[in-house]
Amino acid sequence: MRILRLPSLNVAQFLGCASAFHDSLDSLLQSTCLHLSKLEGRPKGSAFAVEMQMDKDRYGALIVLERWADCVNAFGPHLRLDRGQEMIDEAPARVLTAENLLSRTNRLIDNSTQYTPELSAACLMACDAVRWTFRQERELADPLQRLAAEEFQETRRLFLADLAAR
Q1: What backbone torsions phi and psi does residue 43 show, to the nearest 5 degrees?
Q2: What pTM was computed for the model?
């Protein structure tokens, strides 16, 4: 990842990464749930293109989590936030929790023979739990995004590019 080549990040730059992470993860989770709702009532293999996009999104979410963990591991130990320091301190546990939820959800989808309403509901609940796990990243980054701080926007764009290059 190009972001990891930077020698350090200040708080605004780090929050730019947090914003990019949260938006990317949220988009992939929403897309996965949307695709599942489109597939409801169908047997597996009946809508190949939709299933392939859903697979790309649901497994892509795991890659986004991995990249966020790499970013926090690289820059987090050198940062002190005025508020919300637990976002950094608890990141490894949050990422592990989310990975476990998404991995179990992926196994549930993989092992199903049909896309049922119950499967969709279970996946929606798991995705909501993952979103809730990372709500602080959004809450801390939102004020800076509204200000359009240059450092924030620059690292946000860089990290978004890193996430898109999965």
Answers
A1: -80, 160
A2: 0.93
Report the 10 Å Cβ neighbour count for 28.
24
Confidence (pLDDT) at 166 = 65
* Coil/strand/helix, residue 116: coil
Listed as ranges, residues in the chain with pLDDT below 50 are none
DSSP state of 42: P
Task: Answer whether 4's CB lies under 8 Å from 71's CB.
Answer: yes
Q: Quick count: other Cβ atoms within 10 Å of Cβ 1?
A: 15
Name the CATH architecture for the domain at 11-164.
Answer: Up-down Bundle (1.20)
In 3D, which of 130, 93, 95, 126 has the Cα closest to residue 108?
Answer: 126
Summary mean pLDDT of the chain? 94
Neighbours of 98 (CB within 10 A): 26
Compute the residue count for the chain.
Answer: 166
**Cβ contacts of residue 63 below 8 Å, gap of 6+?**
163, 166
How is the chain split into domains, by residue range? Answer: 11-164
pLDDT in tens, 34-71: 999 999 999 999 999 999 999 999 999 999 999 999 99
